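Q: What would this chain look like folded?
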Amino acid sequence: MKKTQFALAALALVASTAALADGVTVYGAIDASLAKGSSSETAFSGAGQMGTSVFGLKGSEDLGGGLTAGFNLEGGLNVGNGSTDNGGPSGSIFDRAANVSLSGGFGSITGGLQLSPFILSYVTSLGLAGNNFLVPTLVNAGAADGGGTGANATGGFFIPNAMSYTSPDLGGATFSLLTATANGADNNKYTGANVRANFGDLYLTVAYAERTNSYKNTVVGGAYTLGAVKVAASYIMGNPAASTKDINTYTVGASYAIDAANTVGVNYSRNDATNAATITNVTASHALSKSTSLYAFYNNTSNSALSSYYNTSGDNAYGIGITKNF
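A: My prediction, written as structure tokens:
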């Protein structure tokens, strides 16, 4: 009993020390929903239909002379069973981010597991849309992948063994370059790059991703905000190695902020494969507070397109959920 009490006291001391460390932030989000496909039963979806359930730590230290050192550790969660989910290397605690960075007037250099610049550009050129729309769209476009097995699997989203450089702000524009080494027999060397620019209410981006012996993808996208209305569009030009032809996919969407608490959006994507896959998505979000929101979505699909984040059959899907940030 005394040993147990001592161990608990030691854990509490470590936790208190970590909480007081300068520049360290604990953050996260929990997303839980009920979702149903037209050919499936209603199911609890703990993987995150709107946002992603995550737990993370990040921090920075001023080194002086204009230099800052930083780190980020982030793991995805499935709140249905408490397992790791929503990430890159399978079986990892921190499956979305595990990196250290050095930044200054030159920009920033980051080493370790990190988000693909291609994925960042695509996500930021969408209207109101959650995982239930953006992940199936990327799969239909051939822009998501297995990238190996076990600790090397990335899905093309979070890239392990990577080094990246991001420029400082260049008059409203930045560019990023990322490269990741191959992992043994998987031969899944990854290269990604993007340019992102803001011109007042207009946002534009272009990005490239290539996985050796797997695919090459380019996306051009943007968004324009006019008061309560946001319109967005992107075009993915894909060259999957396993396909006999290139696959090109366009996405258009819009959102409207009814008031400070309520936003609605609609999105549509279509690829030009032989049997073109389409997804039409309608989403509504209601903010209960600055950190808590309710949401609802509906997806209509064709030609075996994924119908939601949890449902892999090609049919319609709808659901409701709650997201809590901390």
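The mean pLDDT is 83.
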